[in-house]
Specification:
Strand content of chain A: over 45%
Number of strands of chain B: 11
Helix content of chain B: under 10%
Largest sheet of chain A: 6 strands, mixed
Oligomer: heterodimer
Largest sheet of chain B: 7 strands, mixed
Structural class of chain A: mainly beta
Low-confidence stretches of chain B: none
Shape of chain B: globular
Order of helices and strands of chain B: EEEEEEEEEEE
Number of strands of chain A: 11
Radius of gyration of chain A: 14 Å
Low-confidence stretches of chain A: none
Distance between the termini of chain B: 33 Å
Strand content of chain B: over 45%
Chain lengths: 114, 115
């Protein structure tokens, strides 16, 4: 069964600190993995996308890693800001779907305190 | 910022009412999707469309229906709303970004409350 598991479920950090969010997946055959940021009451917005051959990708203060062998990914946030408070969702797509089917994790709810 | 719009953003209605949630995109994308999301839970695909006159049910059973008469428009209808339909509904559209790889763009969502 294709699944995406994220940890921790929630996280509170102080402004300026770094943090790392984890994602494990069982989706097969693997196409790509995305990290989305979803602000409360809004739709998800893509942060990074990685294919099988990529093991790291950065977008400003966000750095995602991918280990396709162990089927694990992480999202590292550097020098957190109050605006980083949001849900971060790991999303995996499979290569066999012409629909562009996505498998979603439940997200990690990040709260940044001043 | 993706050009995909949803209205209304928030809706509170009574049980038994018929409602239509609107979704429009101006990017010319063929594939469109409706997701349902409860607080703290993952998004569940309830409907999708490959293009005009194409609609399919998703993974999560839903009493809602959809139509796709125009490329840019993908409305979702509930004939008789119930409290169990209370949820956030997200619309998305996608464009191919690689071999069998599609980038999905999400609308802002409609928060539906049925009393």
């Amino acid at each position: 069964k294709n699944q995406v598991e994220q940890s921790p479920q929630s996280l509170i950090i102080l402004e300026g600190k770094n943090c790392t969010l984890q994602c494990n997946y069982t989706v097969s055959p693997f196409s790509n993995l995305r990290w989305y940021k979803q602000d409360t009451g809004r739709g998800p917005v893509s942060l990074t996308i990685m294919t099988f051959s990529e093991n790291t990708k950065s977008n400003g203060r966000y750095t995602a890693t991918l280990d396709a062998d162990t089927k694990q990914s992480s999202l590292h946030i550097t020098a957190s800001q109050l605006s980083d408070s949001a849900s971060y969702i790991c999303v995996v797509s499979d290569r066999g779907s012409t629909l562009g089917r996505l498998y979603f994790g439940r997200g990690t709810q990040l709260t940044v305190w001043p | 910022e993706a050009d995909i719009y949803q209205t209304p953003r928030y809706l509170v209605i009574g049980t038994g009412k018929k409602i239509t949630l609107e979704c429009s995109q101006t990017m010319g994308h063929d594939k469109m999707y409706w997701y349902q999301q409860d607080p703290g839970m993952e998004l569940h695909l309830i409907h999708y469309s490959y293009g005009v006159n194409s609609t399919e049910k998703g993974d999560l059973s839903s009493e809602s229906t959809v139509s796709r008469i125009r490329t840019e428009h993908f409305p979702l209808t509930l004939e008789s709303a119930r409290p169990s339909h209370t949820s956030q509904y997200l619309c998305a559209s996608s464009v191919q970004s690689g071999h069998n790889s599609y980038e999905q763009y999400f609308g802002p969502g409609t928060r539906l409350t049925v009393t």
